[in-house]
Design a protein that fits this description.
By secondary structure, the protein is mainly alpha-helical. The protein has one domain. The protein contains four helices and no strands. The chain has helices spanning 2-24, 28-54, 67-97, 101-131. The radius of gyration is 16 Å and the shape is elongated. The relative contact order is 0.17.
């Protein structure tokens, strides 16, 4: 499941970046589709992550030395912002769908970079836990 979660996080990051580019190009229809897809993929990630944790999944960070505080700094910031992203993303999405574009833009300026950070650091954490050798 950790690999699936990393794929879902990475996919979310790509969709978010693509959605941002599409709105810069004034393609509202594509932006809406991409952001809805990002929301769906993130919801799948959250479901998969919670199931993984409920089944006792998890791994202790195996690294030592200078990399250890780097890992925990990334993990702590990721975890705090991941909790914040859930309501932020929902509120941002609702404003967009209800065509309250002034409110949508105001909150999206915060939501997008934080959500993107959470998606990317989720992939980084996966690699640090499961793919990098520290021996």
């Amino acid at each position: 499941m950790p690999g699936l979660n990393a794929i879902l996080n990475g996919t979310s990051a790509v969709l978010l970046a693509s959605g941002y580019v599409s709105i810069l190009k004034k393609n509202v229809r594509l932006h809406r589709r991409l952001m809805m897809a990002a929301m769906a993929v993130s919801a799948l990630f959250l479901t998969s992550y919670l199931v993984h944790k409920a089944l006792g999944g998890g791994k202790h960070f195996p690294g030592a030395g200078w990399i250890r505080p780097v890992y925990f700094t990334i993990l702590i910031s990721h975890t705090i912002l991941a909790a914040a992203i859930v309501p932020l993303a929902i509120v941002t999405l609702v404003h967009g769908l209800r065509e309250r574009y002034d409110r949508h833009r105001k909150i999206a300026r915060w939501t997008l970079p934080l959500w993107f950070y959470v998606s990317v650091t989720g992939v980084v954490i996966y690699f640090m836990l499961y793919r990098v050798s520290y021996s």
